[in-house]
Amino acid sequence: MKFFIRQATIIDPSSSFHLQTIDLRITNGIISEMGDALSPSPDEEQIEFPELMISPSWVDTLADYAEPGEEHRETLCSGSEAAITGGFGHVFLVPNTTPVVDQKTQVSYIVNASKQLPIQLYPLGAISQGTEGKTLAEMYDMHHAGAVAFSDGIHPVQSPGLFSKALQYVKAFKGVVVQIPITKSLSEHGLMHEGVVSTQMGLPGIAAIAEDLIVARDLELLAYTNSRLHIAGISTSTSVERIRAAKKAGLHVTCSVAPYHLYYIDADLDGYNSSLKVNPPLRTASDRAALQEAVLDGTIDCIASFHIPQHWDAKTCEFEYAAWGMAIQELCFQTVISSIPTITAEKLVQIFSLNPRKIFGLADTHIHVGQKADLTLFSFAGNTQINSSTQKSKGVNNPLLNIELKGTVLPNLRSLNTHIWKTK
Questions:
Q1: pLDDT tens track for 329-365
Q2: How far is CA 249 from CA 221, 231, 245, in A?
Q3: Are 124 and 260 in the same domain?
Q4: Which among 30, 304, 307, 415 is least surrounded, fewest beta carbons within 10 Å?
Q5: Residue 229 and residue 345: Cα distance in Å, rounded?
Q6: Is the pTM here over 0.90, yes or no?
Q7: What is the CATH number of the domain that holds 412?
């Protein structure tokens, strides 16, 4: 299959064409020619779009595709289609499946399944057996089977002793521990951010300290072990301040933010919209402003979609009984640029692609002649709107359905070529 991409701006600091607007020719999944004023051949599919940009394909550092065990919510196949729509060519999957990804056999299942899919999936191996937070899982075996990092996912490790052991253990192979900052004993009965809005709505709250305490604890354990920690989905201004200080102190800590924490605040829950019930919860306007600034100044390293699709029954009920999570992977880019209008294309590519590759040791993708076309095509121009019939995810819990957002993601070339090769 051949593609001719007309007048696209390259966003890749490693490329000699960085920030230049040129034409590209893709032949059988390889960048075969780059330059000015190239001419398309009759057998090439032409791709052209206003203000088109190309970067190394994007990486989603945390999503839930529910397979195996809960395929009614999502499957590896439907999740992959959602990722492609969102511009992602690589996705990290939480271990909270049935069975839990806590052994090399479960890791191998995802690794092997990924070979039949149009994107690359990376399993996050569980830190503890069954993600129960009691006994370390077989991390070394999972690492060699293909686990990209280690996390108990939506059941973050509460025991400081066990978490310290995990941080020490992964040093043997330069691994990374991923923790969602939730202190369960302070949040298990809460339904939203604790504050004025929760009081007005009559809902039990989750105080910001439930996040701040575990971030502070984990940073202390990181300093003690001199290991590598990635804090996923921070939501408070205090978390930003603590991580910023830890980086200045030389600790090996990185972090991500979910796009909905950049877009929504707790006041948006006024209508008891269960699609906005997430954990960590939506915080205040001042927290959101701190997160937006942290993206721009580099304190926040990555975007993690926190794509947790839910079935109709799990969300169409009283707010108290609704399941947690939002299915937003298809609109991450649009959500981010709508939340932070001043973000540059270079910064966006840094947090969507380059930083996660570096943090987790993924193979670099460069935009050079002769390299694989593992690319994401996007534009700040145009608008995107999806609805229940056009979205790819099986999840019903996307609050941005039927809302027009700025920005466009074009078909992922890697997925197009992969699909063609695998269907021959």
A1: 999 999 999 999 999 999 999 999 999 999 999 988 8
A2: 14, 16, 6
A3: yes
A4: 30
A5: 27
A6: yes
A7: 2.30.40.10
